[in-house]
Automatic annotation (TrEMBL):
It comes from the Bacteria. This is DNA polymerase beta superfamily protein. InterPro entries: RlaP. It holds the Pfam family RlaP.
Amino acid sequence: MRPEDLVRDHTVYACVMGSRAFGLATEDSDTDRRGVFVAPTELFWGFGKPPTHVDGPGPEQFGWELERFCELALRGNPNVLECLHSPLVEYADDTGRELLALREAFLSRQVYVTFTRYALGQRRKLEADVRTHGAPRWKHAMHLLRLLHSARDLLRTGRLSIDVGAEREGLLAVKRGEVSWVEVESRMARLAAEAEEASRRTPLPERPDGRRVADFLYRVRHASARRAPEAPPAVRAPGS
């Protein structure tokens, strides 16, 4: 089965991400699509396993196989967690809706570490741009501020909201280069300090609910196996 067939025929959840989901879209914004597909269980029984992710088949489209998606979400991966909270859901079947109902099971205090680590990596790239070119990539600076806002509020409330709301105009001013790098750095430092403070009192649980997620994945795999053909197509062994 071709990777694009997995996306086309076995997607359980699809959403729009990027600036459009964050409430930061302008006339020239792309439409970034993300999704989750469930590879049929029988594909795991041969020597060649299905892909953990597929880039495409459409432009600005990316999808994860369900197991890989859940693994990353349980680790607190910011990009994956935000996909589960997109306000722009384009498709969800019964499995996709059950995945969405599990959103809170993936959240835990470890998001402080994962979001902070990701933000630090992005900030280092911006600082390298300033040293090399005299200015950062302002669009990336805007999105880093957005991420820091999101992380702080998640730690404060226990809920992940990715739409920037009232912060939109201020963030777009950063994207247009209307805010000095010194001011942007100051905002980043303030948000990082507020996130650290919030992490000490966060209502989030110590760990994600891995057992609940594992039960969901087992049931999805089991249901797929029951639909598998009795005589799967022959699969050649490596070297044969």
